[in-house]
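Handoff note, outgoing to incoming analyst
You'll be picking up this chain. Sequence as last confirmed:
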Amino acid sequence: MARSSDRASDPTTLWLHGLAAMGDEQWEKASAAFARFVAVVSEVRDRHLGYRNLAACHLALERYDDALAALDQASCLAPDDANMVHSRGVILACAGRIADALAEFERLERRWPAVAREYGTQDTLRHLHRIQNGEASPGSYLIKHLEAQLTANMNTGDWDVVERKARRMIDADPQRPEGHFALGVACAEQKRDREALEAFLAAHALDLDYVPTWINIGQTYVQLSQPEKAIPWLERALNQDAASLGALYQMGQAYRQLGRLEEAADWWRSVLQVDSDHRPAQERLYEIGMGPEPQEPLPPPKRQQMLQTTPIVKARMRHPQVRRVGGVTLTWDGEVGFVLEDDDNAHNYTVYAGGPFRAARISDEGVLVLMGVTKQLLRMVDASNTRDIAVLVYYDEQAIYGYQAGFEGGERVSFDADGHFVVTRVPRFFKVRIDSDLSTPYGDPMQGTLIYLRQQSRPGVMVSTLGLGARPPT
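Most recent structure output, in case you need it:
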């Protein structure tokens, strides 16, 4: 790793800073890092990747000419790259330059049919031809492009990002419902219910038949304590789908607000007929004295193992230290090990009893480097899980990163990165979340306590899911 005085020109540091910023959708900071990166590296492959990432940053910032210029540089370094042709098509289509975009996608279809099939190019061509023929608005491609990103943003709770993209979708074509609906969701999640209602009603006016909009309008009226207005919308949804859990549950909420508890209980019982484990419905019935106290479901086997191991490891700690960040609690003793517990994410836990280790502070620059490494690794494992990342665990005697993954229902099935990740001294990581409050020149304030683990001749006891939360096999 470069010394502090060399960091501004160290390509590895710049690359990892760029990745860290990209993972957080801090596009200005990411583009600045990658611009510096391509200015200092000489390897053709490095420059090619740097220009590709720089183009992605410019696209996110809607600097289309700059994005195309960066792709031109990448294409000069790797001629006849099918991915570059696809990227050019995407940028041109987002910019509304439909004829040029069609030419790029048609070129991709002719020369690289297998790559074109992977990207679903035929569907893209049909969409662009509809735009060219006046059957769809010029902004509809950009809407589709942004909408494809929203699921990941919603899953990570980045509601400010969702709101920003939703407003951009509305600007691209205010007569399309998608942007209004996404804006309603973002406002509702941020407890701005009146704005949410306005957005959902706008989405409904543009698409009268979209049932999720009806449910969200009903739920928002409940949030605004207007149950009489909520019920007709929820009834419409139930007429289309009598088993809609959202509509059934909100009907119970509405009737509770009206003081009609028997009817509210009937609706919540209907929820449990569809999903017997629906916790909110169980809790509402218990609150009004019409149901038993909800019981915690039996945790999965790994969770049970963690729960059994945790008190044993904690009991061995003579001088435990505790750090809490939101729902995450970290308990450690340098002579014993540590326990990570996450109240908000049952998949994110670690029990380690392989001490001794030492705890140390990490500099602001070091945090960014390690976050960038971790984001890159998690992209390799699970491309949707690149938010809320920090690094906690580091074996200080290993120079090569090693990782194995399974998964079946969550795809991936197998994965081995051993030997593929050498950056001077890349450590072994376990992904967890830690505190972030130290000001840096490259990003929002961040800080963390880094635990360095000494490599042992025999591994310690460890249970970890890396927080990925893969679905069980089916």
